[in-house]
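Summary of Year 1 activities. Much of the first year was spent building the evaluation harness for sequence design. The harness presents a backbone, in tokenized form, and records the residue chosen at every position. We chose the following record to illustrate the format because it has been used consistently in internal testing since the harness was completed.
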């Protein structure tokens, strides 16, 4: 015959929605939304999730450290900002290395010397070289200038 299954209110387009499934004859079940189905209460799982977010937003001003909805939004914004900052840090450091090299010699000319000499030395190493060993850096510069 048929199996009748009544959808739950949150799934149904209307309150009296019924869906019919045709299956093997002589089998007919009728399930109501108010039958003794088990339900899952979030209980401590939800509270644990909320407390985790509230712990991570501790120290924020006002409701962003007290009320979960606002704390959660602030937490997501903070995560997005930290991701962007990690990317921005790489750009900032590269600019710092270029400034350190440029404070000792003409930067564009020095990089030109390196590229024509086919030397694989990155800017971070060169910047540390300028800070901790001036004479060695100048000897490298003059050597590259004489080679080219």
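For this record, the design step produced the sequence shown next.
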């Amino acid at each position: 015959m048929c199996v009748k299954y009544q959808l739950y209110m949150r799934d149904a387009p209307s309150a009296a929605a019924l869906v019919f499934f045709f299956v093997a004859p002589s089998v007919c079940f009728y399930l109501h939304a108010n039958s003794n189905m088990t339900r899952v209460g979030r209980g401590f799982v939800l509270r644990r999730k909320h407390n985790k977010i509230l712990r991570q937003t501790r120290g924020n001003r006002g409701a962003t450290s007290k009320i979960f909805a606002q704390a959660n939004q602030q937490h997501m914004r903070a995560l997005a900002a930290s991701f962007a900052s990690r990317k921005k840090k790489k750009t900032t450091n590269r600019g710092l290395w270029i400034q350190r090299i440029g404070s000792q010699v003409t930067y564009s000319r020095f990089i030109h010397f390196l590229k024509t000499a086919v030397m694989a030395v990155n800017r971070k190493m060169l910047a540390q070289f300028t800070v901790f060993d001036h004479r060695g850096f100048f000897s490298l510069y003059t050597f590259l200038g004489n080679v080219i």
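The mean pLDDT is 81. Quantitative recovery figures across the full test set are reported in Table 2.
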